[in-house]
Amino acid sequence: MRAFVTRHERLSIGLVLLLGLLIRLPAVPIDIERVTDVRLFMDWGRTARDLGFVAVSERIADGYGLYPPLSLWILDALAHIESLVPVDLRGGDTLLISMVKLLPVLADLAIALIVASLVRGRGPVIAVVGCAAIALNPAFIYLGATWGQIDSVYTLGLLAAAASMARPATMATVTGAWVSWAMAALIKVQGLLLAPLVLAATLRDAGWRRALVGMVVAGAITLLLFSPWLGGGMARYLETMSRVEKLVTINAMNLWYVASLGDRTSDARRLIGPVTPRILGYVMVLAVAAFVAGVVWWRRNRVGLALPIAVLSMAPYMVMTGMRGRYLLVALPFLILLALGWDRRHVLPRAGLVAVTVVITQTINLLAFMPPDPALWSRFTDRDATGPLAPLVSTLAMAASIANVVVFVWLLVSLARAARQVPEDLHDTAETDAQQRLESPGASTAGHPGGAMMGAPMGVAGYHGEP
Fold it and tell me: Residue 465 pLDDT more than 70?
């Protein structure tokens, strides 16, 4: 019976992944003319191939921010692949456009597969639902395959880091968590957001020696990827990576969009004394990061990982200024994992509704800023928005922003409550015993479906709640 279920589960997941791929493929070779990002990626890759990495940062125009080095290494590799193909077979820029957009397509499917594997212990139906929640997610499809943004690529690194932290704390899993996190941060700087949690969780679970090894390996990889700039040009490169637009929100439906009533005002204006919206945003995100890290450190056995990561992944988008609407995408896999009861520490009754809400608000955010047909509405951030649907889109934008604020506050409150209370069906004694069994040599997760294979979190073996 188990073999029958497993075989059909794999078939179902495979069909979902195939469907997700087939939905995306028609959009892959097409570049939306109004979007400059794919063209920028192509230019960075070709410049790195022809003139070297330093030339990319030296030649970038003012007003544009450059991505961390791993992104450039990847784009350089794609440009080199393009150069190996005869010019007559490239279709102009079509080949490179397709390769650039295949990055998020493949990342989407990898995320879907990891989500399915992480929740497999909850049952085959839950695994298929988790896979479909990513593979068929309109926000992922529109942002990656249609738009060509690579946010799902660094999201994949953060998800891999979370999956490593959820496994028994061995040298391999701790190092894997640090390396996966470093890869994410070296693709886009937003990947830095999980740093406090990775530090707290690995120190808490594995001790400082194993955590230090992971940090050293991640540091060595970072140094290697930055090596082209070590001989000169590092200051310029770091300056291009730190560029931000000085507005309370670029097109993010977040706290600042609500506070400014949809007006994209400067984030450098003074609120009280020397305090500006930008400074206030930094203070708030650091406070949330410290809160999450503290909860994970002191209440690791009570709160697990799903809820803290959901909070921390959403925090920068919600409270920092200068955010773009697509930056919320990184929170979706973790909210979906929370809704599906990934680590089963706190199966929150409204987590499913919250995950669906954020999927909807992220889709609205992307479509409102980059409509498929600009004749229907212009970008919702334009003060003089035109088009027959422009008023409706502006109303939806404010409603989605308020919904995001409510969700974020709910997550914070839920984490605070989880840190104070032990769930009725999960006791500290059982958790401690289970953790000791997992950490001991020869520990086995046999009898817990998907435990060893799928990365069951520390302490799940002692779970006595709903099967």
Answer: no
Structure tokens that stand for 380 in this block:
């919702």
Six token digits for residue 234: 């590092």
The whole-angstrom separation of Cα 199 and Cα 212 is 10
Q: Helix/strand/coil (H, E, C) string of 227-262? A: HHHCCCCHHHHHHHHCCCCCECECCCCCHHHHHCCC
Q: Report the alpha-carbon distance of residue 326 to residue 398 in Å, rounded.
A: 16
Backbone angle region of 442, left / alpha / beta, with phi > 0 → left and psi within -120 to 50 → alpha: left
The helix-helix angle for 151-166 and 94-118 (nearest 10°) equals: 20
- Residues 296 and 303: beta-carbon distance below 8 Å: yes
Quote the CA–CA distance of 51 and 56 in Å, as a whole number: 8
What is the average pLDDT value for the chain, to the nearest integer? 86
Residues 6+ apart with CB under 8 A from 224: none
Question: Each residue of 275-306: pLDDT tens digit?
Answer: 999 999 999 999 999 999 999 999 888 888 88
461 with 445: CB under 8 angstroms?
yes
C-alpha dihedral (453, 459, 462, 463), degrees to nearest 10? -80
Helices in 85-170 by DSSP H: which ranges? 94-118, 124-135, 138-140, 151-166
Phi, psi of 272 (to 5 degrees): -135, 115
Collapsed DSSP state (helix, strand, coil) of residue 463 = coil
Structure tokens at 420: 């104070």
Around 352, how many Cα atoms within 13 Å sit in the side-chain half-sphere?
A: 7
Q: Tell me the C-alpha distance between 440 and 444, whole Å.
A: 9
Say whether pLDDT at 333 is over 50.
yes
Tokens of 93: 């820029």
User: How many other CB atoms sit within 10 Å of the CB of residue 358?
Assistant: 26
CB environment 125-163: b (16+ within 10 A), e (fewer): ebbbbbbbbbbbbebbbbbbbbbbbbbbbbbbbbbbbbb
Token pair listed for 384: 């003089």
Report d(CA 66, CA 60) in Å as an integer: 8
The half-sphere exposure of 292 on its side-chain side, counting CA atoms within 13 A, is 29
- The span from the CA of 155 to the CA of 82, in Å, is 26
Number of neighbouring beta carbons within 10 Å of residue 424: 7
The secondary element (H helix, E strand) that includes residue 394 is helix 390-420
